[in-house]
Amino acid sequence: MQQRLLERLPFPLTAGQKAAALEINRDMDSHFPMARLLQGDVGSGKTLVSFLAGLKAVEGGGQVALLAPTELLARQHAETAARLLEPLGLRIAFLSGSLKAPTRSRLLKALAAGEIDLVAGTHALFSEDVAYRQLSLAVVDEQHRFGVLQRQAIMAKGQVPETPAESGRMDGRAFPPDLLMMSATPIPRSLALTVFGDLDVSVIRDMPPGRKAVRTHLARESNAKKVYDFVRQELSKGHQAYFVYPLIEGGDESDLKDAVSMSQRLAKEVFPSFPLALLHSKVDEEKKRRIMDDFRRGDIKILAATSVVEVGVDVPNASCMVIEHAERFGLSALHQLRGRVGRGDAQSYCFLVYADNYTEDAKTRLIVMLENTDGFVIAEEDLKLRGPGQIAGLEQSGYLKLGIADPVRDAAELARARVDAFAMLEADPGLELPENRRVAELLQRAPPFADVGT
Questions:
Q1: Rounded CA gap, 133 and 152, in Å?
Q2: What whole-number distance in Å separates Cα of residue 160 and Cα of residue 164?
Q3: What b/e readout covers 197-235, taking b as 16+ CB neighbours within 10 angstroms?
Q4: CA distance 340 to 245
């Protein structure tokens, strides 16, 4: 089935996609459940690799759950899966909390009966009333948007086959589904788990051919008119633009621009000749879908929004991203938002518009974005700024106090130590050999880990 999909694609996989797909296939063929993190910059083709993994799971008789943090992204995944995978015979469904009761009831019955092969959805995928006939692969997209316990909840939905012959895995042992987590910007928690935990990592470092790097510019709020003039030129060429704001609506005491009031100003005063729409988290889901469909078709030229467009929006004709009050956004959000443009053949631009009263941390973040387009470099800088969070806990940022090591400075040493630890457990799972007894004693004296679920 994987080969049939590849033959249908109008383009070849990149070297990074091929390598990641081979690593995932090897994991899924092993006698142990996969626990793999797929890292790749925005637009590198991670979703296609996850679809290849899904085909392998379905071909083996299992089901696939593709978990996304927003209904916008989940719906896009479902639509893309329907376009690429339904012609191969897969049965695709979309599940979210906004589905009406009769539709939801029919879908849940089909899911439990095994009549759905791949379901894309939001947190609804691990609701209490959702059951799978045989969930064998869980894909968690934008995994940093989910808590540890939420990832654990989707894994708990996996149903182990009745006999070892059905599972093809080790005698009578109960295994969770294979787990594939995806991240466009590796975050501190992910890096910490990669170094200290039991995740394997696949990295897609190359981009599809023809993509041009997005040109990033910093602009003071007082120079916003120059930004607007440039965007107007791009719109006149037939392109589209995003304007992103930190707030939906402003309060009496807030001096921040907000999406609602600015959408009115942009439509009436700045760009009266170009159709504009407003999108934020309070917009009804059905209206969101209509707005995004119109934006993809080009009927809407300007989208004024909050960070709701941070993930799951793919409009190749959009060439301008304007982020107002960019000093208020974190590095991960800025990188994701910039990744909404540059998805077509045209040169694209990102304008980080900042106010005068920014902090030193904000200044550092803006400079990092100006000087770097590589998501992995940005992730390292984010790690330095925010700290890696707890290794054995639920906090995902903050300062980690280790007695000896520094996760940033000593990353190479920590990675080597991880390899040695795995080799030790492979040779002596119970740590019973004389040379390993000291390690066993130290582990017994160590405080218990928090419920991290991975």
A1: 18
A2: 9
A3: bebebbbbebbeeeeeebebebbebeebeebbebbeebb
A4: 15
SS3 sequence, 152-169?
A: HHHHCCCCCCCCHHHHCC
The per-residue pLDDT for range 196-230, each reduced to its tens digit, is 466 788 888 888 777 788 999 999 999 999 999 99
Q: 303 and 242 in contact (C-beta within 8 Å)?
A: yes
Place of tokens 């000593």: 410
**What pTM did the predictor assign?**
0.77
Q: Which domains does the chain have, with CATH numbers?
A: 2-204 (3.40.50.300), 215-372 (3.40.50.300)
pLDDT at position 144 is 65
Residue of 353, 354, 346, 321 whose CA lies nearest to 336: 321
Three-state secondary structure call for residue 36: strand
CA distance 444 to 431: 11
Residue 247 is predicted with a pLDDT of: 93
Q: For residue 283, is it left (φ>0), alpha (ψ between -120 and 50) or beta? A: beta
